[in-house]
């Protein structure tokens, strides 16, 4: 059974993979685990059990040395956050954890979903982050130990209209129990509420679990962290609410 703790682990593994894929690093400071993601100059603190000054202060100092422009913390809703608040962290939009098997959409989106990292339109940080889908193919280049969870298979899916216009993308990372953790799902504003997001979820599930059975339903559980604006979308696609967590930002 998927738990909030398990969902937190999948998000941790994603942020660690994104750090390594973009030339960053992972480090710890007195019980605090950090991921430095240089493409967006972002430092992320990952689910500390009880973050205190002894761990927060040196982590922030390292972030300053690296040139971080944004510092975030993902926190279990039941974990003490007084140390983070004292350091200047405040709550951003509350996250909710969702998990479940996909349900078939009422209508199919008339476009194409493909797995792969060939996205000529991508530039800047978006282009650098595409490398996250290549880590598992070349683990020796990462410097991580064999079997590190950040090296689990990751795929990116793009959604294009029949005319070839790029209208959406999403990533999925394979979790320890075979589940797929969904990250970075985005659809262009002019194409939302048309089934693009659902098509991306189904395309990732089919491509990673059952690529040859194009007409068969892929029986796999998906996990996602949702913002208040995306929670309804995940629920409409068959994913149940597991619980809620905290996303904090250093002001």
UniProtKB/TrEMBL annotation:
Transmembrane segments: none annotated. Residues 111-251 form the N-acetyltransferase domain. PROSITE patterns: GNAT. SUPFAM superfamilies: Acyl-CoA N-acyltransferases (Nat) (SSF55729). This is Ribosomal protein S18 acetylase RimI-like enzyme. It comes from Paeniglutamicibacter kerguelensis.
């Amino acid at each position: 059974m998927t738990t909030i703790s398990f969902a937190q682990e999948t998000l941790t593994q994603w942020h660690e993979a994104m750090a390594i894929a973009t030339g960053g690093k992972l480090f710890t400071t007195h019980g605090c685990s950090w991921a430095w993601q240089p493409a967006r100059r972002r430092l992320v603190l990952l689910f500390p059990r009880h973050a205190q000054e002894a761990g927060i202060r040196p982590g922030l100092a390292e972030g300053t040395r690296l040139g971080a422009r944004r510092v975030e913390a993902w926190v279990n809703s039941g974990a003490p956050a007084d140390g983070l608040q004292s350091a200047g962290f405040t709550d951003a939009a509350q996250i909710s954890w969702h998990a479940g098997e996909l349900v078939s959409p009422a209508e199919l989106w008339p476009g194409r979903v493909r797995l792969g990292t060939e996205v000529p339109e991508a530039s800047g940080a978006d282009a650098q982050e595409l490398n996250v889908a290549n880590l598992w193919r070349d683990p020796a280049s990462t410097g991580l130990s064999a079997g590190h969870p950040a090296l689990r298979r990751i795929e990116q899916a793009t959604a294009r209209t029949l005319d070839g216009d790029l209208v959406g993308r999403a990533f999925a990372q394979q979790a320890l129990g075979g589940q797929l953790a969904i990250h970075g799902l985005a659809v262009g504003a002019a194409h939302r509420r048309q089934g693009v997001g659902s098509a991306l979820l189904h395309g990732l599930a089919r491509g990673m679990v059952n690529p040859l059975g194009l007409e068969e339903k892929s029986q796999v559980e998906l996990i996602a962290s949702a913002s208040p604006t995306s929670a309804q979308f995940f629920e409409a696609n068959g994913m149940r609410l597991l619980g809620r967590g905290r996303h904090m930002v250093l002001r």
